[in-house]
Each structure stands twice: as C-alpha cells, then as structure tokens.
Amino acid sequence: MFLVCGLVTIALGVLVLVFLPDNPMKSKLPTSSKTRAIERLRENKTGVENKSFKIKQMWEALTDYRVIILCILFMLSSEVNGAMGNYQATLIKSFGYTSKQSALFSIPLGLLGLISIMIVTYIAGRFGQRLLVITCICPIAITGSAMTAYVPVRGAKLAGIFLLELVPITPLIYTVAVANINALILMSFAVGNIIGPLTFTGNTVPKYIPAKIAIMASFSCVMITALTLRTILLWENRRRDKCGLREHAANSDFMNMTDRKNDKFR
C-alpha cells in the first residue's frame, strides 16, 4: 500500500510540476481571471512571486517566535499522525480483535476522518478562528486517547480510536502556515512522523500504554500551544491596530515585504 501511495504521489507531483503555473501571471487564464487572482493575493498580503534571496528575511523567519511556536505545534500534531498512521491497526488488534477485523475498521475510520476534515475545516474557515477550533477539539482527542489506555472495556477502547479520528488537527495547523515558512513546516512534519512510531516499543506489547500516554500528552500540548499562539497573534494585531498603520507606497503588498515590515499584514 505504501509503495502504491508513494508512486501515485510521485506521479501527481510530476503532473503538478509540469502543468500547474507558479503564479497567476504565468497561467493561461484570461486576463480578467488573472486580475482577480492577483487581487486575491493582495488581500492575503502575500505578494505574487519574488525569487531574490535576502539573508535578513531568512534570519527573520528563523528567529520569529511565532514561526518557532508554529513549528512546535506542527511537530506535535505530526507525532500523533505518525503514531496513529502506522500503528492504528496494531492498537485495534491489541484490544482483542483479529487482524482482519482490525484492517476492516480502517474503512469506517477513514470515512469518519474524511467527514471530520470537511466539517472542521469548514467551521474554521467560516468563522476565521482556526487556532481556537484546534484548541476546542483537542479535548475530544485527549478523551479518546485516555479511553484507549485506561478503560478496560474493549468497545470503549475502540470508541476512543473513533474519537481520535474526529480531530483532524494537522490539516488545520497547515492552513495556519504561510508559504514562506513551508520548508520549516515540512521539516517539523518529518520530525514528528519520525518520533511518533518510536513511542511504540517491543517491551510494551500488547497494551502500548507509553505510546497512548504520548498521544494524550501530544494533544494536550497541541491545545496549550495553539491557545498560546492565538493569544500572541491577537496581542500583536491589537498592538498594530493601536499604533496605527504607517504609510506605504502604492502596491506595497507586492513589494516583497515580510509580515514584520508590513503593518497591514494580519
């Protein structure tokens, strides 16, 4: 399965590289559509494209405390992703189900995960409160991981796995990240996915209590970190609003300014 998914990913990556334009100006869209796409980028305050490398901007990204917190947040969520993605069927089997039953449970779990992603991301986008949504749904996952670790009833343990699928925090956290720190986010994603499976050790078979505690702790840290980041961002936005906006040149949204330099960035 992993080989098939890997090959499909590579094939799709090649197609995207060949056919997907880097920015609206290079696309084959009509001029009116290009203009609308560029104006949408103006609203995001992200600019279109600038390939000039500036050491000051790199250093600013590496030392920005908001970037560091966001990377920690993504690494914590990826730790859960790595653990559950690789050992979900193993956990279900440890509850007393057969290998075939454990594999079949992946069908409703996958469907539940898909539906929860659509619902949660819609709510977060509709109200513009992604970090708050992450904070609010984490207790569901904490409850689910605690059920898998400490409730003796097999059905309740399985219900805990379903509760974990109700919390799609990784897609939500990824939407918080902006393109200029995408490389750091992907590094955090890789580190988290490496750490996650390592919590399942041979000497803890079949209950894997340390791994379940690690999942519960990760969700708890995600909740605290998301709430901390949200508080910091609210404080920063209010500080900028209180200080007022400095005058910028026309089309300053496309002048390759970082969010620290661009007071209009929110």
Automatic annotation (TrEMBL):
The chain crosses the membrane at residues 65-82, 103-125, 131-151, 172-195, 215-235. One of its GO terms (molecular function) is transmembrane transporter activity. Keywords: Membrane, Transmembrane, Transmembrane helix, Transport. The keyword Cell wall biogenesis/degradation does not apply. It is a multi-pass membrane protein. InterPro entries: MFS, MFS_trans_sf. GO terms for cellular component: membrane. It comes from the Eukaryota. It is found in: Membrane. The keyword Transmembrane helix applies. This is Major facilitator superfamily (MFS) profile domain-containing protein. It comes from Coleophoma crateriformis.
